[in-house]
């Protein structure tokens, strides 16, 4: 009996030691993974910094994508027959929808990073400021409503891509994914835009080249 008891005691201590070792390994790996993710995020953010110019050949036509969303939502678009549609035909609207126009029509984008704050600057010095440290609200468009409402955005990193969600002042929604290509010299933006007044979502890809 003593031998059996000793063996059980030995196995019990061994199991406890293995359990402790497993817990320590799990904690170590989680910490290392978190550190690696944070380091990659900081590095990717710094690579995003700079001035970007739209590449029209590689980008979707914003007007085409807006018309597609209108049709999918059951709406109608003007029939032009042989008349050419004016450029940026669907751009413009009430002030609360300006953010949609900026991200889908402006040809320039400047990105600035001062941890943990990221600033996007579009044409006419239109600025968007948001954070990637878990804060849910702090953003900005340049102007405010008289009631004090404002656009707001927040970002996070997902496998090297910057994912930005926005809540424009009209009550709509945007989801934008920013990914670097061509060794950091090209920026691809995949976005879904859902203005509150639309019955369908606008799917749009914008591709920028780094401006030297």
User: Main β-sheet, in a few words?
Assistant: 9 strands, antiparallel
What would CATH call the homologous superfamily?
Answer: Calycin beta-barrel core domain
The second-level CATH architecture is Beta Barrel
Instruction: Return the CATH topology.
Output: Lipocalin
- Structural class, by secondary structure, is alpha+beta
* Overall geometric form: globular
Strands of the biggest beta sheet: in what spatial order? 4-3-2-1-9-8-7-6-5
Low-pLDDT stretches are: 2-8, 27-40, 143-148
Total beta strands: 9
Distance between the termini: 82 Å
Radius of gyration computed on alpha carbons: 25 Å
Number of self-contained structural domains = 1
What is the share of helical residues? Answer: 25-40%
CATH class division: Mainly Beta
* Pattern of helices and strands: HEHHEEEEEEEE
Layout of helices and strands, plus pairs?
Layout: H1 2-48, E1 50-54, H2 62-72, H3 98-105, E2 108-114, E3 117-121, E4 127-131, E5 152-158, E6 161-167, E7 173-181, E8 186-194, E9 202-210
Antiparallel strand pairs: 1-2, 1-9, 2-3, 3-4, 5-6, 6-7, 7-8, 8-9
């Amino acid at each position: 009996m003593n031998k059996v008891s000793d063996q059980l005691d030995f196995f019990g201590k061994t199991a406890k030691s293995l359990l402790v070792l497993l817990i320590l390994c799990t904690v170590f790996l989680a910490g290392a993974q978190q550190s690696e993710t944070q380091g990659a995020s900081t590095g990717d953010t710094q690579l995003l910094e700079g001035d970007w110019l739209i590449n029209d050949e590689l980008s979707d036509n914003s007007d085409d994508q807006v018309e597609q969303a209108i049709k999918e939502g059951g709406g109608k678009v003007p029939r032009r027959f042989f008349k050419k549609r004016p450029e940026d035909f669907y751009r413009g609207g009430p002030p609360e929808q300006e953010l949609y126009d900026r991200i889908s029509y402006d040809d320039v984008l400047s990105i600035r990073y001062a941890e943990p704050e990221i600033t996007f600057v579009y044409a006419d010095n239109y600025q968007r400021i948001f954070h990637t440290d878990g804060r849910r609200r702090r953003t900005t468009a340049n102007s405010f409503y008289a009631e004090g409402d404002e656009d707001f955005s927040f970002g996070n990193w997902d496998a090297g891509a910057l994912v930005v969600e926005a809540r424009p002042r009209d009550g709509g929604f945007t989801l934008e994914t920013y990914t670097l290509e061509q060794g950091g010299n090209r920026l691809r933006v995949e976005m879904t835009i859902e203005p509150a007044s639309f019955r369908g979502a606008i799917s749009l890809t914008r591709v920028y080249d780094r401006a030297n």
